[in-house]
């Protein structure tokens, strides 16, 4: 280190005690610098030790190892285990894939009671209530449970006016939607009461209704969905006197309202006026 400082000052003393010549000094500087170069660097006129003793730093790109089939299967199993809404599913439970799938499922259910469950994977209340839904489905195999993932079908849920989760809607046959409500484990009695009220078998007079017509039109108007619906016109009835002539069905006539009862004295009479009473007295 002393030799290096001496070199930096410009003079070096030879082993014999004499001051070295300029040519020798230059050669001496080069030799010292060559020896110190791998492990030192000159900073501000002084030689500083390098942080790397070897004097050389090699940067190499780390090669990524291809995942083995066993590791890939473990990753897939882990990702699948995180899908809590697929745990404990019963044969009468299934997830809706599209708007058309929802409409077809409600239409094909006939007189069977259908419960539509709107949920979100990030909803804590939905996740906590899911085991209860599976228990209800197991206890009621004749009821169809449909699951709608809000995160995957946001546009469809907006058209159906779904603004709170979890949300449950009950449908049956020609009656269409029976009720719509939201509940959690704290208000599970609401779900039990609705299931007990609408579960008994009933025969519907007419075709299965499913979604409301306004909801079907909203789904058809949604550009994000591949769903088409044409508004149904009233059915035309052929007239007997003209072969090719058809007319729309006439609206049902309401029965005439009964005359209000007017209390006269201690008797109840059917709306006679005073003039009718006087005329009746004269004739008698």
Automatic annotation (TrEMBL):
Q: Do you know which Gene3D superfamilies this protein is assigned to?
A: Glutaredoxin (3.40.30.10)
According to the record, the residues making up region (Disordered) are: 234-284
User: What are the UniProt keywords, alphabetically?
Assistant: Disulfide bond, Electron transport, Redox-active center, Transport
Which CDD domains does the record match to this protein? TRX_family (cd02947)
Composition bias (Low complexity) maps to 245-261
Q: What does this protein do?
A: Probable thiol-disulfide oxidoreductase that may participate in various redox reactions.
Family the UniProt entry places it in = Belongs to the thioredoxin family.
Q: What is this protein called?
A: Thioredoxin-like 1-1 chloroplastic
Species name for this entry?
Zea mays
């Amino acid at each position: 280190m002393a030799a290096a400082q001496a070199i930096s000052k410009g003079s070096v003393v030879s082993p014999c005690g004499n001051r070295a010549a300029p040519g020798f000094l230059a050669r001496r500087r080069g030799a010292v610098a060559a020896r110190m170069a791998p492990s030192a660097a000159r900073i501000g006129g002084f030689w500083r030790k390098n942080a790397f003793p070897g004097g050389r730093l090699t940067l190499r790109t780390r090669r990524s190892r291809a995942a083995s089939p066993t590791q890939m299967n473990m990753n897939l199993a882990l990702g699948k285990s995180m899908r809590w809404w697929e745990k404990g599913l019963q044969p009468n439970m299934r997830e809706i894939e599209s708007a058309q799938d929802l409409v077809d499922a409600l239409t094909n259910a006939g007189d069977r009671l259908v419960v539509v469950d709107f949920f979100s994977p990030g909803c804590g209340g939905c996740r906590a209530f899911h085991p209860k839904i599976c228990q209800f489905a197991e206890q009621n195999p004749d009821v169809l449970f449909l699951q709608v993932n809000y995160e995957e079908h946001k546009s469809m849920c907006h058209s159906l006016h779904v603004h709170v989760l979890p949300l449950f809607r009950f449908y049956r046959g020609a009656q269409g939607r029976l009720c719509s409500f939201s509940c959690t484990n704290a208000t599970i009695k609401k779900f039990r009461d609705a299931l007990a009220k609408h579960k008994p078998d009933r025969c519907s007079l007419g075709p299965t209704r499913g979604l409301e017509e306004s909801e079907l039109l909203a789904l058809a108007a949604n550009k994000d969905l591949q769903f088409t619906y044409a508004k149904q016109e009233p059915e035309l009835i052929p007239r007997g006197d003209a072969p090719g002539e058809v007319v729309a069905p006439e609206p049902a006539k309401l029965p005439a309202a009964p005359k209000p009862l007017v209390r006269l004295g201690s008797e109840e009479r059917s709306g006679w006026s005073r003039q009718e009473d006087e005329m009746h007295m004269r004739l008698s």
